[in-house]
Design brief:
alpha+beta, 8-stranded mixed sheet, 5-stranded mixed sheet, 29 strands
Length: 780
């Protein structure tokens, strides 16, 4: 940092210089590449560190009649074995409802539920010992599917309903109807870094927990409750995660609490690192959904009435299933105006892992149902699905109120889809595919263009707040701390850019430090695509306070008005003079000007009534669309994504490079959910797809060779951080286009006269079943 005088004129720099909106590399990119980035397991262990493992249930639903832990205690290296009786405080880690024990106490409710903790001198010794327990069970009836939960009226929460207009009357007047069922499977988060916590006891009952978590404040609360302490006794810290995707929002609590309980009992530091198999057996996934739908429409394909009944596999406890179902209900409309609707959702209680947050948080599960219906309407009418989609789009000044009552004021779906249709050569490729399929009896191609409208904000209004601290040091370097957590998505990079821009300095001056509950308190989870929105605004607020103080100081020293002082390109421009930022900071320190500040932000204008399922739950909407072209082998069910074009509305992007990367990653992850990632439980309720050998996430060979991702030129109408838009979750809906391109290819087997009964994930087996069904119906 060279703090000599700047010879360039103020007006030249002030008009062109910017730090936000630039394609900057991830702040930890070099550390990632060199293998030097510190994750929780890389933290140097303190003297006397012990290692823990969890003893898991082997039954889906049973009473524990007796448990013999003597073989565990006698195993090599074991220091302690702990059960629910050894928990000093509350035996619960549920984020909303207290129905989720840390350790089972007399009743187990899924295969993989933790029953006891083994603490040993090594990770391997703890894991080996955990398998030696002898548990006597009395088996109870188990419910494993959402359909079975509905039949038994087994729910973790009361069912919910959103109704607008008069659906029954609208159905009566509809010339055509389509009805059916659809099943969409769940998805394992499969973060590269598994669940892990490292608890270190401190003085005066203090506990410092290093944890791979998206929600340090929630971990602080859970650990404090489990230990019978106050929150001020517990500090939770997370520098970075090796992926989260929602799986570390609420469900990192079990691991943090177990490590802390073991640390208190042994009075030594304890690390709990989950093996991948254990991680997948214990933790919840994306909720699978089963749908029963009925839609009335006219001769043009305009939807007149819609009714859907959704039930999810919640698992054995509520966890976040309620908010997930709420978002599914609020995203059933996707990009379409639905005048008369009856939307119902239920969270089925099943004897499986308690499902939880996953990128999209119910939004994808809600939106895919209406897309499935529109796909069927188009086929029934012999029309291109894109034409039916466009016909039903929300309007600009009319037909622009959602079923839950929020007026849409930022609708760009018409322009965005029109641009993608043109740049992707959609119509020409559609004609070419029709000709290809006419002469190709085995290999069939399919094409689909699907839109996205995704609401941005937490469903629960009070969670839409954030805090930050910014420190400017005497040498001109800057440290920022905020309540968001870095899971690879680039939140630290974006927040650093915001702070650098606000203070008019090069990004190299700014550094982000670990998220720590001892610095910024009462933070919300880094979730709901709000990380950069909330924490960027909070950091901007803190940096702006410092900038205003510096402006007032230099104006008092050099003349002019503080409001006329400009900060840009590491330079402070005041009264016709150009001073280096570092020089100004040094002078300000000597003048006893405060060089640090806190910042806070709360998203304005949000409200939601869960009883009436109405309100203004979202700050704004992010839009997007994608075109996918696939080829399907109708003899084997194998398929290949040939080309994908995605256009995403990131508003005035804070960092185009990071945003494009997020769109690419979300697209492939969503494609995996809808095509290859199948969760399968055996009849005894054990998850059999609990390792990379049996659970298939997309590989590099599954990515299209022709992958075109662009950002739509737009500017947020809401006062978001620099008028940008969120980019974490919404792009996961873009690969709907892959699923419906596969369905389009299968449909061609019957001359597009039959709606293929294709469920998700569209595995090779599922595709073959759909092909057989189409051939049978077409032949009949």
């Amino acid at each position: 940092m060279n703090d000599t005088a700047n010879p360039v004129l103020a007006r030249e720099l002030d008009s062109s210089w910017t730090e936000v909106g630039r394609a900057r590399p991830h702040e930890s990119a070099l550390l990632h590449v060199l293998g030097q980035a510190t994750y929780t397991d890389d933290i140097r262990e303190t003297a006397g560190t012990l290692h823990a493992a969890l003893g898991l249930s082997s039954r889906a639903h049973a009473r524990i009649l007796g448990i013999d832990l003597d073989p565990v205690r006698a195993s090599r290296g074991v220091v302690a074995v702990l059960t629910s009786r050894d928990i000093p405080g509350l035996n619960d880690c549920g984020p909303i409802i207290h129905d989720d024990p840390i350790l089972a106490d007399g009743l187990v409710q899924y295969v993989g539920q933790p029953v006891f903790i083994v603490v040993a001198d090594s990770h391997d010794n703890a894991r080996r010992a955990a398998k030696l327990a002898k548990i006597d069970y009395e088996d109870l009836p188990a419910i494993l599917t959402p359909q079975a939960a509905r039949a038994a009226e087994s729910y973790v929460l009361p069912p919910m309903r959103l109704a607008r207009g008069d659906a029954a009357r609208a159905f009566a007047g509809a010339p055509f109807r389509v009805k059916g069922e659809l099943h969409v499977g769940g998805q394992e988060q499969f973060y590269l870094e598994g669940q892990i916590a490292y608890a270190i006891p401190g003085e005066d009952r203090g506990m410092h927990v290093y944890c791979s978590t998206q929600h340090p404040s929630e971990m602080q609360h859970v650990v404090a409750h489990a230990l019978g302490l106050h929150s001020h006794h517990v500090t939770v810290e997370c520098r970075r995660m090796g992926g989260g995707f929602g799986g570390k929002e609420s469900q990192s609590a079990l691991w943090a609490a177990a490590a802390a309980i073991a640390a208190v009992r042994t009075r030594r530091p304890v690390k709990l690192r989950a093996d991948r198999d254990d991680d997948m057996l214990v933790t919840g996934k994306r909720h699978c959904f089963h749908y029963e739908y009925e839609v009335g429409y006219d001769r043009e394909g305009r939807i007149l009435a819609a009714k859907v009944d959704m039930v999810s596999r919640a698992g054995y406890s509520a966890d976040l299933s309620g908010p997930v179902a709420t978002r599914a209900v609020c995203h059933f409309d996707n990009s379409y105006y639905l005048a008369d609707v009856d939307i119902r959702a239920a969270c089925g209680k099943t004897n499986t892992q308690s499902n939880t947050a996953f990128r999209g948080f119910g939004g994808p599960q809600g939106a895919i149902a209406i897309e499935y219906v529109i796909d069927e309407i188009a086929r029934n009418l012999g029309r291109d699905p894109l034409d039916i989609r466009r016909l039903n789009f929300y309007g600009k000044t009319d037909r622009n109120v959602t079923p839950y009552g929020q007026e849409i004021v930022d609708n760009v779906i018409h322009e965005l889809v029109a641009e993608l249709e043109q740049t992707s050569d959609y119509r020409a490729r559609r004609a070419a595919i029709i000709e290809y399929n006419r002469t190709s009896p085995v290999l069939k191609k399919g094409l689909a263009l699907t839109p996205v409208k995704f609401g941005i904000a937490f469903n629960v209004t009070h969670l839409n707040q954030a805090g930050a601290l910014v420190h400017v040091y005497v040498d001109g370097s800057i440290l920022v701390n905020h309540g968001g957590t870095e899971m690879g998505q680039g939140i630290n990079t974006k927040v650093m850019q915001v702070v650098a821009h606000e203070l008019g300095v090069d990004l190299e001056r700014v550094r982000a430090t670990a998220t720590n509950t001892g610095k910024v308190a009462n933070t919300s989870a880094t979730a709901a695509s709000t990380g950069a929105d909330l924490n960027g605004k909070a950091a901007q607020d803190a940096a702006r306070k410092i900038r205003d103080r510096l402006a007032a100081f230099v104006a008092s020293q050099f003349g002019g008005e503080a409001s006329e002082v400009r900060f840009a390109d590491d330079t402070v421009f005041v009264a016709g003079q150009a001073l280096r930022f570092g020089e100004v900071v040094a002078k300000a320190y000597l003048a006893r000007v405060q060089l640090w500040s806190d910042g806070f932000y709360a998203t304005p204008g949000l409200h939601w009534d869960p009883k009436t399922m109405s309100g203004h739950p979202f700050s704004y909407y992010a839009y997007g669309a994608a075109v996918s072209e696939v080829v399907v082998d109708t003899l084997t069910g194998e398929w290949k994504l040939l080309r994908a074009d995605a256009l995403y509305d990131a508003g005035n992007s804070l960092n185009p490079a990071i945003d494009i990367g997020q769109v690419e990653g979300a697209f492939i992850q969503g494609m995996g959910w809808l095509t290859t990632e199948e969760l399968w439980w055996n009849p005894a309720g054990k998850l059999m797809t609990h390792a990379p050998s049996t659970y298939k996430i997309p590989g590099i060979s599954d990515c299209p060779q022709d992958f075109r991702v662009r950002l739509f030129k737009n500017r947020n109408v809401e006062d978001s951080i620099h008028r940008s838009k969120a980019v974490g979750e919404p792009p996961l809906l873009l690969p709907f286009s892959v699923f419906f391109a596969i369905r389009d290819a299968v449909s061609s087997v019957g001359g597009h006269k039959v709606n293929p009964p294709l469920n998700a994930p569209a595995t090779c087996e599922e595709i073959l079943k759909a092909v057989a069904a189409v051939e049978s119906a077409a032949g009949a």
